[in-house]
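Reply to dn_fold:

You asked what the input looked like. This is it:
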Amino acid sequence: MQIEIRENSNVPIYRQIVNAIYHDIKSGALPANYKLPTVRDLAAEMKIARGTIKHAYDELQNLGVIEMTQGRGTFVLDKTDHESGSKKERAMKAIDALLDEMEELSFSAREVQIFFDLKLREREERYDNVRIALVDCNPEALALIAGQISRISNVDVYQYLLADVLQAPYKLGENVDLVITTSTHFSELEKAVSDVRKITRIVLTPTQSTVAELAKLVHGTRIGVLCASEAFAQIICKSYTTLSGGNTIIETRLFGQQENFTEFLLQQQVLIVPQDYLQFCPQHEAELVRRFQSEGNTVISYAYQIDGGSFLYLEEQIERIKKAKQG
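and this is what came back:
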């Protein structure tokens, strides 16, 4: 399989992979029953995070063109074996026609995705679930917040980057029950939410274990920070500066910046990464980080969480909405 990724495209990488494989299947370049590479192998070959490949494969399976079977692998579906094939073909043609029309109207891929998400949520049948929109300026914080809130029963959580919300041509909140953000972004978000009463502000803090790990670092230690976004790198640097007094120079770098990555690691004694950083980190960089740690260097996982008071208040808000829906 030849999959070309355009780094500067506004189309997400997983979607580019979906489009490329889907096109090859439809054109016959990938015949029925063809065995696709495993998630691990394709991630290693393309130097892309496994989570991205898994997301693309899940999407292709939802489209009905591949089948993932535990223990056997991932195969191109034989349409003759699936009676629903004709319906899916018609559905794909309808979607293609709609996408062509959206392109003619000059909507970006991101805007089209937002519209689809909105209309799908309008048709959701799980009316009893509390629909929550998370908004923050960086993907690391969104993932951490979503992980904590998802542990609450009967909630559907949707993640939005603040920049996307501010640029999107719609009012967030019309199809969700609660909008969660930090106090830092509240004033910006007010203009983009249809009903400001739906906005709940939370406070995010590093966990006690993270604070303890940072506090133990000796002045003069060479520290590197690896993140998916500049915003989260600044959060980490600010936390360390507050604890240390700001006498240590920290070098930051974003995942996916392949130039001199090995050299960057060689210059560090300690590496600070977001909790669950593997979902943002390309496979080859993750392997280098593991090697860095195995050689006796320190890797600190920066864990961020909703503080206790905010979480209790949030649970009360969600419970109130649940009761209102049931009533």
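The mean pLDDT is 86.
Hope that clears it up.
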